[in-house]
Design brief:
Length: about 110
């Protein structure tokens, strides 16, 4: 495995756990040199990008999170982004996190 599957899979799973955002949807863009995941909504006030990298999480929809845990679709909050960062580093890939107004973007460079 080239290391991209765990990184992109976590981006997709995290996006599915966001609350109903009305007409705004999670968008995934695939370019020749990167994959971008753009989620509607800002990070919660207590969560920063550095805290995300360290495993701090905040569930905006705990009922759905519990349901997904019971289905074993996810196993623990706060593990995904640190795992993605570790896999990116292990595979000499860059990953960038950025708040863009009312959106949050994760870019995985291929």
């Amino acid at each position: 495995m080239d290391g991209r599957a765990p990184m992109t899979g976590n981006g997709q799973k995290n996006g599915r756990l966001w609350p109903d955002t009305g007409p705004y949807k999670i968008r995934v863009f695939l370019f020749h040199d990167r994959i971008e995941f753009i989620s509607p909504g800002k990070l919660p006030n207590t969560v920063t990008i550095e805290k995300l990298k360290a495993g701090v999480s905040y569930s905006v929809n705990p009922v759905i999170v519990k349901f997904m845990e019971n289905l074993r679709y996810i196993d623990k909050l706060g593990r995904g982004i640190p795992m993605v960062c570790k896999e990116a580093e292990k595979n000499n890939k860059e990953i960038a996190f950025k708040e863009l107004g009312e959106e949050f973007k994760v870019t995985l460079y291929l």
